[in-house]
Amino acid sequence: KIDQTSNGGHKMKMTVVKSDRKVGASAMFRKDNTTYIIIATFLLITAIFIYRLFPGTEVSQYESVSGKRPIIYTYFSWDASRQDIEHYTKEQEEMIDFWKTRWSNAGWEPRILSEEDAKRYPKFNQYDEQISKLDLLPSKRLCFYRWMAMSAATDGGWMSEHDIYPLHVESSTPKNMFVLPNNGRLTIYENNLNHGAFPSLVSGSSAEWNRVTAALLEYVPQHEGEMFHDVRALGQLNIERPKSFELVDGVTNAVVLKTGLGQTRKIDCRWYSGKIALHFSYKTMVDAIKYKTIRRKQEAQSRAFYAKRFLNDFRHQCEGTR
Question: CB of 274 within 8 A of CB of 236?
Fold first, then answer.
């Protein structure tokens, strides 16, 4: 009840009431402000997480989203011209699955590029028309597409064919692969005696991938009607412009056993010293069966079947002897 006989008391009482309201409002503001800060912090953390989960162009494409695994790319497109489409599909699916599993187990993040990635390359249609005039099967024309895909759709890094498998899993040190060898200069790891380089495993910075890709595509119109692929283009580049890329003897394409050991089938681990990967090509499989370094199995659906068996033996016999 307000005392009507004392204006001063009335004013004082009203002043006290107003002061109480101010204090209450200030406390409420501090409480609400703290809540806003908590919500804003949560939204910021969520935004960072989403950005890292779906990286933009500023995130290095040869480092995984987590930054803990180097990325290994391969290029793959289905060959619709195949007659044995059912067997071909099963074979390719098994090989791709094993490629992803093997590289993942070795500490890498495998990713697959496709024709859609190649189409992002500048003047793709023009180069595609020129490539179509070469004397190549449709599946062989794709050898140039992988160069365009790596140049246009990534920030550089590592690329392998899907029948390239890392030899050393348990003792591998993929963290070293975040720093590209040879200061990022394009490097090819399989030596081809006939042509100088076989691009089954390649590393390089984005600038280097684009530089060499442009150089290889320049040769295509010169060989219209010829059987001209990227291996021949690399050979021509190496002759006309020596030291255009680095060549390292880091990939083997042979299954080598010690001799004179009957049925023990011991792998000659010394042969693989210094190698980082096995190229289990179709020729590798055929030669291995022919010379009985691997046994033919009726249940084999693809090269991946034999590669798994050999690499399993390699792990038990040779891991740690690199």
Answer: no
**Which pLDDT tens digit goes with each residue over 167-220?**
987 545 555 667 899 999 999 999 876 657 999 999 999 999 999 999 999 999
What is this structure's pTM?
A: 0.76
Q: How far apart are CA 312 and CA 307, in angstroms?
A: 8
Contact 251, 160 (CB under 8 A): no
Q: What is the largest CA-CA distance in the chain?
A: 123
Residue 184 CB coordination number (10 Å): 18
> Which DSSP string do the residues of 231-254 spell out, in sequence order?
HHHHHHHHHHSTTSSEE---EE--
Find how far residue 206's CA is from the centre of its chain: 13
Residue showing tokens 């390359």 = 121
Q: 28-56: per-residue pLDDT in tens?
A: 444 456 666 666 666 655 544 433 333 33
With residues binned 3-state (H G I as helix, E B as strand, rest as coil), the percentages for the chain, rounded to 5, are 50, 15, 35
